[in-house]
Amino acid sequence: MGKAIRGLVATMILLFSFQLAAFADTQTKLRLGNDLLLENYSYLIDGKKVGLITNQTGVNSEGKRTIDMLHQYPSAELVAIYAPEHGIDGVAKAGEYVESYVDPTLKLPIYSLYGKTRMPTPDMLKGIDVLLFDIQDIGARSYTYISTLNYCMIAAQKQGIPLVVLDRPNPLGGEIVDGPVLEEPYKTFVGVDILPMAHGMTVGEMAQYFNRNINSDLIVVPMEGYSRKMLFQDTGLPWIPTSPNIPDLKSVMGYMATGLGEGTGIVQRDKFTWIGGKGIDSKRYADLMNHAGLPGVRFIPENKANQGGVRLEVTDPYTFNPAKSGIYALTYAWQLTRFQVPVSGKTVVMFDKIMGTNKIGQYLKQGLSPQQIEANYALELERFKEERKKYLIYESEGSSVPAIQKKVLEGGIVSNKKSYVPIEALLGQFGYTVQHDDSTRRITATKTGKHVIFDANLTPMLVWVNDVPIPSTIDPFMKDGVAYMPANFITWLEKSHQQTVGNVVRITTADLEVEVLLPPPPTPKPQPPALPKPTKPIAGKVAYLTFDDGPSNLTGPILDILKAHQVKATFFVIGKNIKGHEKIMKRAIAEGHVVAGHTFTHDYNKIYRNVEAFFKDLEEGNKEIERVTGMKPTIFRFPGGSNNGVSKLAQDPQLYGKDQTIMKDIVKESGKSGYTYFDWNVSLADASPTGYTAESALQRVKEGAKGKKEIVVLAHDTAPKKNTVKALPDIIQHLKEEGFSFKTLEAGVEGFKFLK
Fold first, then answer.
1. Read out DSSP for 123-148?
2. C-alpha distances in angstroms, 243 versus 247, 249, 251, 677?
3. Residue range 615-627: average pLDDT?
4. What is the DSSP string of 568-621?
5. 711 and 741 in contact (C-beta within 8 Å)?
6. What is the pLDDT of residues 66-83, one digit of tens each?
């Protein structure tokens, strides 16, 4: 395997070897995300420098490490590896500090995310084009691998790097969701988000749940053949120890059932298969647990030295509820011993961190029964279950298997050794309503829950799925009036399986098999059509495109569009948003755009308090721009514009009365300080509190530009403004057709000021 293992004892080497050997004798029932990556989703990494977040569990269904798969893959370059708690080999003890090092065989850095930092630093991510995550989780909130996923998503978002999760099963299945729900003040590395103890999600689903707050460029490569009812033993895969104390599925089952007593004296033993403590009568404890109506488990009394306790014997893993059993075990232990409950003060005690709240400790001291404790967190648990539904990928197995329909399509082609299929014909087979508008050069495909747009105005085509721009590496194109996409793109859209045998591309879902016929000899590489030829600019008609409030993860796609249309723009950036987006800012300057000031905080209450406060904040933002680009701006835009109404609410009442406004003084001072500010005379209205669409943004520009010779167009490039990105190609094309040329703002440009 060529695996670099540091400090690994001989017994662990043998154990891991036996686990890998088991793959050869096991007939797997599902395909993992890493099984499908190179087969169906290689476009996500082709031509890119890849960083991999993984450990010893990152192997495919044939037992091959994802590290080795990527290292041997010729079309991408694995340049860095990131390891979670327990290290790359999974042998470090819980909580043990792990150092970073260079793998002597692969000559690659192995960055520890459980050492000096738990979040990848900008230096660790330098040069990375895409991050992959491939680690097996155990389905418990306090197990830190999902915390590492969360932290990596945050770091990737800050650096503008896409993150791809190679999905894996939840070993406890996807249906048991139980335990107290974490509260906001108790977020830590052992409880990174608002989750119950048992969340019932795969790592891919968990990533989608995390992303509701992070807004990273996230892609999940889903499994094939997985359903919510499946436990790990149903997958046909051998279990690889995830950490020293989780060597097998017994430990996975017992983790939450026995491991909740941190700091109480109630402890787990034998790799989470026994729970007990001093002063416990083992027989009484077993009687209480066995008569509590807990499904799928039997508790056997067993003493250990001076401690009494019970051993778990899971009799039905499908009904066994680890989180519920853990709450009952802890509550009955308190009834038998009256152990001292840890209490948080200035710092949060580990007991409350594990529970995600201080309420469980309070309930124990109040002498509540386990049933009463359950009832107290039931409402929050139901709220979480409802929220969770939005992020699930997989369904439960049905009671019957529908017959598979088979279809045959002609018209596939081969380009650059890749198979391409006709977009309209193939999506039609998968139940999409497809429309091709020759006037806009757009193809739209719609079905329940999905809306896909292919924009042929650019090369390569821009693609949106549910208003989210998809990476340009998908590379669809037009040839002889027919639009084509890579055959493997449909596997992502429809969670299907695709393989090419001879001159046939076979795409299969649970109830449909489509064969696309390719020509026997490969066709020459098609030449995508050039952009539509713009109307010749009319002398004196100038458009200044401006984008406020960035940079964000949408600034890159905007730069892509501007480059494709050979248009320059002005970006009024917020200083605090620059960190993590330095590469984007440098790219904007290198491609001829202007980066200008928009204050550091954009905090109305702070910047419009008085004149001094405004320029202090503006200067701070400009220094941040200068730090990254080497150029200090001399132009800026007021947050809210120079005629904003919010400044009256924020201005110091001791300096300004009801009929006075601070804005006149700031405008006057800006001239004295050598600054020029700009407002606008056309707006996309993409900051409207009532919302907007790509169509409404385009219409606003059409109406606003009518009859004008010079326009300054206000748009925003913050993360939520996906419709702005969607509308931008049409906006540029319309303005070109109206005879506008495009320029950037500079100090010598006259006008475009609400206040003089």
1. TTTTT-SEEEEE----SBTTSTHHHH
2. 7, 12, 10, 58
3. 96
4. -EEEEE-GGG-TT-HHHHHHHHHTT-EEEE--SS--HHHHTS-HHHHHHHHHHH
5. no
6. 999 999 999 999 999 999
| The two structure tokens encoding residue 746 | 């500079």
What is the token pair recorded at 515?
């064969």
- In Å, what is the CA distance from 616 to each residue of 266, 613, 637? 56, 5, 15
Q: What is the pLDDT of residues 159-190, one digit of tens each?
A: 999 999 999 999 999 999 999 999 999 999 99
Query: Is-cis flag, bond preceding 342, omega within 30?
Result: no
pLDDT of 523 over the 50 cut: no
Run of H or E residues at 206: helix 203-214
Say whether 475 sits in a helix, a strand or coil: coil
Q: Which of 191, 122, 193, 194 is nearest to 160 (CA)?
A: 122
What domains can you pick out in the chain, each with its CATH number?
10-234 (3.40.50.12170), 249-391 (3.90.1150.140), 405-517 (3.30.457.10), 542-742 (3.20.20.370)
In the structure encoding, which two tokens stand for residue 255, read together?
Answer: 């983790």
Contact, 413 vs 424, CB < 8 A?
no
Please tell me the total number of residues recorded for the chain in this structure: 756
CB 720 within 8 A of CB 468: no
DSSP type of residue 191: B
Determine how many CB atoms are found less than 10 A away from the CB of residue 475: 21
From the list 71, 89, 716, 730, the catalytic residue is 716
pLDDT, tens digit, for every residue of 184-230?
A: 999 999 999 999 999 999 999 999 999 989 988 888 899 988 999 99
Cis omega (within 30 of 0) for bond into 557 = no
| Residue matched to tokens 């950490």 | 243
Q: How far apart are CA 197 and CA 189, in angstroms?
A: 14
Residue 47 and residue 475: Cα distance in Å, rounded? 13
Please give the radius of gyration of the chain, using alpha carbons only, rounded to the nearest integer: 30
Check if 716 is active-site. yes
Cα-Cα-Cα-Cα dihedral sign, residues 392, 397, 399, 400? positive
What is the pTM assigned to this prediction? 0.56
* Calpha distance 204→605 (Å, rounded): 40
User: Rounded distance, CA 716 to CA 350, Å?
Assistant: 43
Select from 251, 490, 495 the least CA-distant residue to 392: 495
Active-site residue, selected from the candidate residues 455, 548, 679, 730: 548
Q: Closest Cα partner for 485 from 468, 467, 466, 470?
A: 470
CB 275 within 8 A of CB 309: yes
* 663 phi/psi in degrees, rounded to 5: -60, -35
Q: Containing H/E element for 194?
A: none
Helix 611-629 × helix 662-672 angle, to 10°? 50
Query: Which residue's entry shows tokens 């660790």?
Result: 124
Amino acid (one-letter) located at 44: L
Q: How far apart are CA 555 and CA 552, in angstroms?
A: 5
DSSP output for 29-78: SSB-HHHHHHHH-GGGTTTSEEEEEE-TT-B-TTS-BHHHHHHH-TTSEE
291 catalytic? Reply is no
Work out the number of other CB atoms within 10 angstroms of the CB of residue 99.
Answer: 12
